[in-house]
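Pair request: fold both.
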Amino acid sequence: MATVVDLLTYPVKGCAGTSVDGSYLTPAGLAHDRSFMVVSTDGVYRTQRRDPRLALVRPTISADGGRLTLASAEPGGGDGMVHVDVTISAPRRDVDLFGVTYQGIDQGEEAAAWLSDFLGTPSRLVRVPPEHDRKTDGLTPGTSGYADSSAVHLLSRASLTHLHARMAERGAPPLAMDRFRPNIVIDGHPEGSHGEDRSAAPHSEDRIRRMTIGEAQLGYAKLAVRCAVTLVDQEAGARGGPEPLRTLADYRRAPGGGVVFGAKFSVVRTGKLSVGDEVVVQEWGDAEA
């Protein structure tokens, strides 16, 4: 049996995540996930690929989404923070995410000043508008806020353990799960709805096509293609060495290019899910890598 061992939401795209015991799964993912984004003054999204210090911005958001706090998680640094009364009524502005234009609601001068100072470059904070209607692709289409693609990123501990074993063969130390910024972390062997066990850890998540966790149901969208964000030490807010991409390139190359690790899912049915929930698979498929 596989269960959920961690749930993580990232209120501000590219910034630190927050581990929660439970969350409501909305059509766009865990509550408040990637509902805010840091952009340049001309509206282009900021990412750890170019601004690794984003990892040291620790957001917390109230349950109703009306109050956002940004705090410094810099090792040995101060405890500077800014509180944002979230607005959804301010004028919309164009924002650029991977070359596609969406709308964002600017969250004001105080948040912009704090982020600009912390990141060392002029920045603004925007929120997804309520009317946001982004469509995501993959085997199961869906929607998401400002996530890279699909609403939910799922990863198993078994996959990370296998990666660590391969890295150890090179003499490389293990990496924290947060390098991969998953939303749902599972442990154990997922079983089908009729009790059949088709998992052969690692990477059993790659073959799940439809599953239920708690009240929610998710459908497989695509494999998670990994980028240079995995090279950023999330505790230091700085780029490290070549791992894990160097090792992943040995055995996890996607047919269409790039290296993959973990899987992306769309939300088929909304509902509450919690740490400890069982992962029940209704449909399995063949691995794409």
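--- second member of the pair ---
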Amino acid sequence: MKIVTLDGDTLPQPLKKPDWCDVWDYRGSTSKNEIAAALHNAEIVITNKVELREDLLRDLPGLRFICVTATGFDCIDTEYCRERGIVVSNVPGYSANSVAEGVIGFIFALRRHLKDYLHAAGHEWSDSTHFCLHRAPIRDIRDATLGIIGRGDIGCHVARLAKSIGMKVMFAERKGAPEIREGYVRFEEVIAQSDVITLHCPLNDSTREMIDMATLRQMKPEALLINTARGALINEADLVSALREGIISGAALDVLGTEPPPASHPLLDPALKNLIVTPHIAWASHSGVTNLIKVVEYNLAGYYSGQIKNRVV
């Protein structure tokens, strides 16, 4: 049995070869023009973000199992896999604590303008006539309202942590939904009432660029936007304009629409105020990485034993 890992370097620790695997092709990265050759005669492929679409999959008759080393699986053509009988498994909930703590960290950093005050300490404090240096207003986290879009493992974990520090929490109903489910609030109300909006929903046709200029203009001027899910949930050009024009107060992004982004990406402009961008690492705490590797091994063992685990297709 041949197993190919296409982008192993996205994991800070390598996966271990299962005892029952005959051919273990562990690739740190794989370019588009190398994928077909790498997967020749493979029965199992392990991928994090390398896309597997119909035009590629139809030329791989021996492929039986795709193990995604993430919770999101938008990189996989799930409809074609369903038609072909290719099993797809993911790793649900492995990073809930890691991402949730990252979100809370972003909230503190943005509400307290840590980025600006770090700069002020290094460039202006020495010239101050007083012991303190006031710049942007520091806002409390307690009693602030957090709007959460997405009520999966991560969204629920964020809610628990936020409530524990005194925040008020609302879960948004799907954008444009005709009915409001119990425990949810109309999307537009959440957008308009929240001091912080955090995104934890999957990327699909209905959520792509759900945060656009119309939505940003519905937010409070002092509101903040956090995205640790998928970059394409936000219209990035609109967000740049909103930050430059002061339509919202700030944002923290752990994901961008193109990863890695070009150096010229407008959201990497250091002149943008109260913007924090990190390189897609909110999931990567010690617990997140440990959980991920354990569940990938569990999924592989499940396929080998004929008892599929964490199946999404």
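Observation on the second member. The chain is about 30% helix and 15% strand.
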